[in-house]
Amino acid sequence: MTLKKLFTALLFLIFFCNTINAQLDEKKTDSTILSGFSNKNEPGGAFLIAKKGKIIYRKAFGKANLELDVNMTPDHVFQIGSMTKQFTSVAILMLEQQGKLNVNDPVSKYIKDYPSGDKITIHHLLTHTSGIRDFTKMKTLSTIAQKEMKPEMMVDFFKNEPVDFAPGEKFEYNNSGYVVLGYIIEQVSGQTYEDFIKKNIFEKAGMTHSYYATDRQVIPKRAYGYHQKEHGFVNKTVISFSVPFSSGSLMSTVDDMLKWQQALNQNILLNQAETKKAFQKYKLNNGEEFTYGYGWHLKEINGTPDREHGGSIFGFKSMGVYIPGEDIYVIGFSNCDCHSPTEITRNIAKIALQSLKK
Predict the structure, then answer these.
(1) How far apart are the first and last CA of the chain?
(2) Could you tell me if 164 and 171 are in contact, meaning their C-beta atoms sit under 8 angstroms apart?
(3) What pTM was estimated for this model as a whole?
(4) Domains assigned to the chain
């Protein structure tokens, strides 16, 4: 064998070995997902895994619509629930980047009559450390659940409730804080929250199949949401999306969510300094660090740092995991709140981490 042929053979061998090492364990991934989405005649879900922006796994399971017997595809649009908070936090940081607000501003700067608004900052709202009452825990929520609520009406609904703790005293997940953030976005930008997200995030990131949720508008390839009862499945409870608002009212696809992650990675929406704010851990008043940035939980998978967040809204559940050190993104959606993709998404992220590690 000539030296040239030997060199070519060695190059091929190196490439071939690297390709093998970088292959996802698809069979194990399938079986992990099927542990919760095995019945093809039930509501299902969609899952996607990407490495360095390249899709390496993209599959759907079950039905998108039971009445019409429509199979789920990875193209279907899901309500993403609290994953909406990522978009709200980035919108706030975009406005800060434009010099229109500061995350250390008190809420009273934008909502004059907010109780203790001079002590609660935008930072407290972003990090779930404000202490204000979570409207989803209020017994009176059912009285407004199907009403069309303006953002200021939503804020008025909970703002006079007793606080749970002083601002910055503890971390406690809170939907009300993100509703206030949505209202501030409208006040500062002069646009509706829906328009701001559409024009400044969806359009810039190329997310052509993402929407502010609606039950009235015709959404191409919409997955329908379901609950499971003792006698079988029923259509999801109808709510007004103006109630969860900026804490949980967006819709998207697995492909669009990858575009979202790529836009963040490539600083298409935020510069590096603002992006860093979203993904760093912060401290409570007593100096104790907690594992939440701005719109993301900052945790670990098998000792490797990750960023993750789930969502739950009537008829739907969602979960996204990003492993920055390996540039691995995993997203899972379900169109029944009886099937949670949370642990499944984390488990397939573990599989991806093991088989796709550099």
Answers:
(1) 32
(2) no
(3) 0.93
(4) 25-356 (3.40.710.10)
